[in-house]
Amino acid sequence: MSVKIRLQRHGKKGKPFYWIVAADARSKRDGRYLEKLGIYNPNTNPATIELDVNGAVTWLQNGAQPTDTARAILSYKGAMLKNHLAGGIKKGALTEEQAEKKFEAWLKDKEAQVGAKADSLAKAKAEAKQKALEAEKAVNEARTAIPPPVPEEVEETEASATEEAPDEVVEETAEEVVEAEKSDVKEEVTEKTPTEEVKASNEEE
Description:
Blueprint: E1 3-12, E2 15-24, E3 35-41, E4 48-51, H1 53-61, E5 65-66, H2 68-77, H3 79-91, H4 96-145, H5 152-191, H6 194-204
Parallel strand pairs: 1-5
Antiparallel strand pairs: 1-2, 2-3, 3-4
């Protein structure tokens, strides 16, 4: 039975994370596996990797073949180096103490590199945040420097006032004309009353 060390997908759509497993090469990607060796989460920066290095080395020594991505992860965590050192011990080129010292030195160097990368990412994030705050401050200062515009409602009320003024004059003159006509009618009525007209007609007869 050929065994592969590969990634098994988990998580929801758009945010996957993976299990690092040793599985039969004939099984499906997300199917049954022989042993879970760790996890790989690419959603964080830097990516989160947890690996059972000794278990991975055991499978490598038994002939398991990692996929390209799994090989990169194993190399990143030192499993490939430890497997190489174990081969040197079997050949007699190294003692276990020498191999362990080399592996510990590599781990310290790797941790320093990862820590430096995390610090640089945090620094870049802080600088980007500071630049965003400064840009927002500049925009706010520019807004306060510009005088407020004249409200359109005030202009409309002034224009409507000038337009309504002649209408009021016309209304007043019309009312005066009506009153004048009424007064003329009253005067005509008062000039000849009905009784006077009757008297005048009797006298003519």
